[in-house]
């Protein structure tokens, strides 16, 4: 992008944002659409046919291909190459499965392929046969674009959101929890996998868990059995002991996925892992840090008030010490964007918090905001939709929020975000605060 054009765009966007500061949209969204159930859509396919294909990052220059088959003998093999029908490489993976009360899953395959070239189109097929899929690996350098959508579910609005994301030029998708809204009805996990396959098989989907993914049955089933079996993330690659929290790098961005529904106090494994992870980030190589979690820490909606307070009390000092740029959350079925904020107040060296729990879930929208909009809250709106974060370079990123206006996307909020490192915030942290990241 031409530097003069870039600065002009930044100035115009800043003026628009300043004029809209403290805005509560009066937009009114119609009720949620019905559930889409595709759980029986694969019954006519051969048992060995790969279904519910989705991909995720699996360490530097590697990708994990995940899929399910009804045939328990089907191999966990992926053949791939850079031209159609010409598979020059083969990778062998692993498989799992699970029983949930009366439900028995198919064979769930996870196979890591690579090393792969950045920004390259690959063709692949799963299980040694079946249809050909294609994926594009993310770039190794700026710019890089993240699509963001939370609390997806599988309704007509979900399909609309997915269609809008498909029309965007994103490199990977971030999902801050509540995927399928199966809520114990396991065939809905299969249906969700079918619904998202067209997108999730082409670009990496990086997810963290929400309350609707928990599905615990006391004394019978542990929490997140279905989620962990189906959506394997690169936790081992990031030195985590749990699939519920992990990190990864993409271009010049370090992304941290946290678990709102596993221990997070200062004595917990997750807290100690987060501290170690943040202390090892090289801001010369990854000048941006993003964090995703399910329950928002800053929320002026009437829904789910205070639910993130304990996690925020434990972990916000770590994020502030490390100059985390943006925190994305879900859970509240509405959109809200804050200024840089820390300890309950606006702070130019604090993280921008964005609540985006409104991908299309069946529960509908959280329409009611608190009457007095907090000074840290910039824009809030109850609508279904998705967001896009285009990290242009080491200093600037462009965030836009696209609501589903009937079946057309409308950009109703936008802002240029300057990285906290380029703003001098990391250098300004006093030694007492920065010491948090070095304590053992």
Please give a structural write-up.
- Residues 50-137 form the Purple acid phosphatase N-terminal domain.
- The protein is of the alpha+beta class and 440 residues long.
- The chain has eight helices and 25 strands.
- Strands 1, 15, 16, 17, 18, 19, 20, 21 and 22 form a nine-stranded mixed β-sheet that branches. Strands 14-13-12-23-24-25 form a six-stranded mixed β-sheet.
- Helix 3 (187-200) links the parallel strand 13 and strand 14 (205-208).
- Helix 5 (269-279) runs parallel beside helix 6.
- It is globular.
Question: What order do the helices and strands come in, and which of them pair?
Answer:
Blueprint lengths: L2 H17 L3 E2 L26 E7 L5 E7 L7 E5 L7 E4 L1 E3 L2 E2 L2 E2 L2 E7 L7 E6 L6 E4 L7 E5 L7 H11 L5 E5 L10 H14 L4 E4 L16 H6 L15 E5 L2 E5 L11 H11 L8 E5 L16 H13 L4 E4 L5 E8 L2 E2 L4 E6 L20 E5 L3 E7 L4 E10 L2 E11 L6 H4 L2 H4 L6
Parallel strand pairs: 1-22, 12-13, 13-14, 16-17, 17-18, 18-21
Antiparallel strand pairs: 2-3, 3-9, 4-5, 4-10, 6-9, 7-8, 10-11, 12-23, 15-16, 19-20, 19-21, 19-22, 23-24, 24-25
Helix pairs in contact: 5-6
The outline comes out as globular
Let me know the largest β-sheet. 9 strands, mixed
Proportion of residues in β-strands: 25-35%
Number of helices: 8
Q: Approximately how much helix is present in the residues?
A: 10-25%
Beta-strand segment tally:
25
Give me the Rg, rounded.
21 Å
- Point out poorly predicted stretches: 1-20
Cα-to-Cα separation, first versus last residue? 43 Å
Judged by helices, strands and strand pairing, the structural class is alpha+beta
Q: Calculate the mean pLDDT score and round it.
A: 91
